[in-house]
Specification:
- Helices cover 81% and strands 0% of the residues.
- By secondary structure, the protein is an all-alpha fold.
- It has one domain (29-159).
- The chain is elongated.
- The chain starts with a helix and ends with a helix.
- Residues 1-7 and 9-25 have low confidence and may be disordered.
Length: 163
């Protein structure tokens, strides 16, 4: 799970969204942590993590067997989108608070610059510090979201709505 989390952090790290024009003269540590976490596209990160967790489940395999790969993938994507809408803000806050807890203000500033510059070499050591904290904070949320998405998809299959 840790490697999936770090891999997802790296996967979405290539899409910075920090706007230099929005900078405050002296941002607080919390502000910096939120800026850095926002640059990581937390909703997309969560979506990738939920889909990865679901793909390893027996329930997903049953859904595929019952309605086929294409319909199952579409149904699971739809249900994943719903849980991301529901829990995405909590995921984003967990990410920001993980950055704030793991990194010094100087490291947060370095992370911000690394994301702006798309400097993966500079980002990786910082993510290694954040990863364990983020995993501890988000693992229960990830399990909850994946379980809810799978249950909703399975219910649709059971009702025949997904065929």
């Amino acid at each position: 799970m840790r490697f999936i989390l770090i891999g997802s952090l790296l996967f979405v790290a290539g899409a910075p969204s920090l706007a230099a024009t929005d900078e405050k003269p002296n941002p607080t540590t919390a502000d910096l942590a939120h800026e850095v976490s926002a640059s990581m596209a937390p909703r997309e990160q969560m979506r990738a993590m939920v889909l990865a967790a679901i793909s390893q489940s027996t329930t997903a395999a049953i859904i595929v067997k019952q309605i086929g790969q294409e319909k199952a993938a579409s149904l699971i994507r739809d249900e994943t989108g719903k849980v991301v809408d529901r829990y995405g803000p909590e995921w984003a806050e967990n990410l920001a608070s993980s950055y704030q807890a793991a990194l010094t203000p100087q490291e947060l500033q370095a992370a911000k610059q690394a994301f702006l510059n798309r400097d993966r070499a500079a980002i990786m050591p910082l993510m290694m510090k954040v990863g364990p904290i983020m995993q501890a904070k988000t693992e229960p949320l990830l399990k909850k979201a994946a379980t809810e998405a799978l249950a909703a998809a399975f219910e649709q299959v059971g009702k025949g709505a997904a065929k």
